[in-house]
Predict the structure.
Amino acid sequence: MKSKIPCQLLFSVLLLSCIGLSSYAQEEYKDSKNKDLKELYPGGSFYEVQHYSQPKTKNHPRNIILMIGDGMGLAQVYSGMTANGGHLFLENFKNIGFSKTYSSNNYITDSAAGGTALSCGVKTYNGAIGVDPDKKPVTNIREMAEKEGFKTGLVSTSAITHATPASFIAHVDSRGSYEDIALEFLKTNIDVFIGGGIKNFEERKDGKNLSKELKEKGYQVLYNIGDIQNVKSGKLAGLTAPEHNNGMPERGEMLVPATQTALNLLSQGKKGFFLMVEGSEIDFLAHKNETPGVVLEMLDFDRAIGIALAFAASNGETLIIVTADHETGGMTLNGGDYKTGKVIAKYTSGGHTGIAVPVFAFGPGSDQFTGFMENTDIAKKMMKLLGLK
Ligand SMILES: [Zn+2]
């Protein structure tokens, strides 16, 4: 039995190097017979990880960047670290804790209750966006920040109306109400949002064209990441896909330039800013138990973290929190190679799991995010650090 495994792996690696990762990503592992192939990331190119030291000048941040890796448990983080030769930008974070992710009605949360915990500081039922267990609206940190004169922004690779970003905008009983969620963007004064979801704004049952309404409110509405990253000032609605953006590698550069653009625009405010960035699709690929996709999404998210770190290290007044809403897939790592970046993963689930997820903090106030904490505490601590009520 044992002697068979290296042969299978060798065969898989040879096969992959012949057919190339992208065709592999699309075709080969969709066949359930190729379970081992699907669970193997053969290795790829590495990127350089810069080192940043944490600014020690202030106790309270002026800005907060909350970065949510959807479905990002420790195995997802470590699969990326292995695939990048043993290093990630995440290593710059020295204050680390764990978040208890359960929701008000389930040991295992979904992204709606998880997002609401992180945005509003309340435990609610699975499926709820910005409402408590009694379906009453709860104010989220972005709304509080906006009211106090901070600039605010949201970036995601999924539709911007999907559960995690929606939790920072909307108050609806059910996460599936995408068109209602899109409508709630118009009721806010958000400065920048970039993600997928054009259909929810423009192909609606009520016949409204929300992009037109956004333009009337003064937003630049742009559909192409190249155009989006050229925006130097003003309000921006970047809608880069009809629904969710593609997964990696098909998506290409989107999350990194979107994060950079949001930072460029938000840092022009007088008072500071709150930005949420989601690596949404770590979760999507972990649901499918597809290791190459999980790894590539993790690396893309880490490179966006690198953008945030470069900003925070030079700015000195910015707190970055990186965490997850929950783990997806019950992923674990049964093998790997730092030299080639190869990762062999196994999964216990096609859904989410109940395990605690890591919390990484960098910058002023980061010392408050160590040890075990409730997911709701992350929101409460951020609100307190920005002086929000
Ligand atoms: Zn999920």
Summary: The pocket of zinc ion is lined by residues 71, 111, 283, 287, 328, 352 (CB under 6 Å). Residues 1-29 have pLDDT under 50 and may be disordered. The radius of gyration is 20 Å.
